[in-house]
Amino acid sequence: MYQTDPPLPPSEVLPTMYDLPSEDPEEPGLPDEFHDFQPQLLRETCQPPTYPTGEMFIGTDLNLYYDARNRLWHKRPDWFLVLGVSRAQQQQEMRLSYVVWQEAVAPFLVVELLSPGTEAEDLGQTLRDANKPPTKWQVYEQNLRIPYYVVFDRYQNLLRVFELTGMRYQAVAIAEPKFWFEELQLGLGVWQGQYQETEGLWLRWYDVAGNWIPTFEERAEQERQRAEQERQRAERLAQRLRAIGVDPDTLESF
Question: Which of 4, 110, 175, 182 makes the best surface tag, with the fewest CB within 10 Å?
């Protein structure tokens, strides 16, 4: 671009975040801000009635080691759920990674948040290179045999669900962007709303009645509202007692 007089401001001539890569070419799919918030929402709302929180493990952008013969081979799912394992009770027990041969339990569900740089691999459209580890799809489907694999494309509001049937993943036909996991008694769907003060399309868990599982902030607000309703109820009762000549303060001592 030719220099102008006066010069254009940097915001008009320098590349923006849309022009610069957000991924390492050697390791595509590195998290952006969405990849930070979305897994938090999945974690907060994943509350299956069939499994207490102490009996399941949730991993977010954590190394998943899957082959004891090739001990450095790993994948790094955006979000995954393991059922029937104990979560850490002490900080020093928190997992540095998830090692399948150590835990003896493979994930039940993996969620990948589609990025333009990883779309082909996320959807099983890439082939394994010679002398290279298997692809993400191959690991989930053939090595670990993970029952469910979900891919969410927020750019097109597209939710894809793959279920392990026999030896291969089969795409599940869904009429709307929702899927019910009978084993969990929870469903996973696309929700339009505000999370972390950011409006958009988000993956979120819902219950058997179709209600979205509340976030930590929503639960705190619900508790605040219940407390306020109880305070107002007590105040109305006190007013009625005073109206008939009874001091409500004297009743508290009984």
Answer: 175
